Amino acid sequence: MPQLIDLSQEIFEGMRVYPGHLETRVWEHHTHEDTAAKFDGGFSYASRGITLSDHGPTHVDALSHLDPSPDAPAIDAMPLDTFYGPGVCIDVSGAPPRTDITAADLDVALAAGPGRLDPGAVLLLHTGTFARVGGTDDYLSEYAGLDESASRWLVEHGVKVFGVDSPSPDNPASRTYPCHMMCRAEGITHYENLRQLERLLDRPFTFVGFPLRIRGGTGSPVRAVAILDED
After folding, report:
1. What is the dihedral of CA 151, 153, 156, 157, to 10 degrees?
2. Cα(223)–Cα(8) distance, integer angstroms
3. How far apart are CA 207 and CA 22, in angstroms?
4. Contact 35, 45 (CB under 8 A)
5. Are 207 and 222 in contact (CB under 8 A)?
6. Coil, helix or strand at residue 92
7. 222 near 192, Cβ under 8 Å?
8. What is the DSSP string of 19-56?
9. Which among 28, 34, 35, 31 is positioned nearest to 50, based on CA atoms?
């Protein structure tokens, strides 16, 4: 049986979300004690209510989130094969927080790791952010991001979709967000708030991260999973 690695962060009230996004709330909507009185024979049920941003937990951006054009597709209009495919993970965790990861850095990381990135692959970037400061306030501001050259590198290598284990692929110190702007111009989307990417370094895998079918959604929470290839 292939090994499955869960790349998703937990969803819970009080979880860190990107500054300004809707905070996550979870509450008991029905309890077993409340519903038992509605039935005979001992049956009861429980349910919870949840409110959260479509960019709150581990999620993928819709192109409509990145692009103000009226014809930019929402999450429910994007092809499902966008969110599935052969994956490659490279290590850029040496970049200090609030600095730029460059195309040269990606060249070094690719050469030191898998050595090859085929067009159409899913590329995951291990920044080490979640492993280092996940669950703390620093998670929201102390991470590195791709500069313009690194963003163009993704295009030149034919990456289908990519993801990071941080709140954004852009440097939080940036005022221009070149990686998001590349995504807008090229129609390439990405995942944010992944975890456990260190377990994928130098290992072939298939990535799966399907969004919910949210009508008009600007993004969607996902249960991102890596399926490791069998030896």
Report:
1. -110
2. 6
3. 28
4. yes
5. no
6. coil
7. no
8. TTSPPPEEEEEE-HHHHHTTSSTT----EEEEE--TTS
9. 28
Which residues, including other chains, have CB under 8 Å from residue 221's CB and lie 6 or more apart? 11, 52, 54, 56, 57, 58, 59, 211, 212
Spatial contact of 171 and 165, defined as CB atoms under 8 Å apart: no
- Torsion of the alpha carbons at 109, 112, 113 and 115, rounded to the nearest 10: 100
What are the backbone dihedrals phi and psi of residue 171, each rounded to the nearest 5 degrees, phi first? -60, 125
The DSSP output letter for 230 is: P
Of 50, 52, 48, 51, whose CA–CA distance to 29 is shortest? 48
pLDDT digits (tens, 9 = 90+) for 164-212: 999 999 999 999 999 999 999 999 999 999 999 999 999 999 999 999 9
Q: How far apart are CA 1 and CA 188, in angstroms?
A: 32
Under the banding of pLDDT at 50, 70 and 90, the label for residue 231 is: low
Burial class (CB in 10 A: 0-12, 13-18, 19+), 111: exposed
In percent, the amount of the chain with pLDDT more than 70 equals: 99
pLDDT digits (tens, 9 = 90+) for 45-58: 999 999 999 999 99
144 with 98: CB under 8 angstroms? yes
Give the C-alpha separation, 165 to 133, whole Å.
11
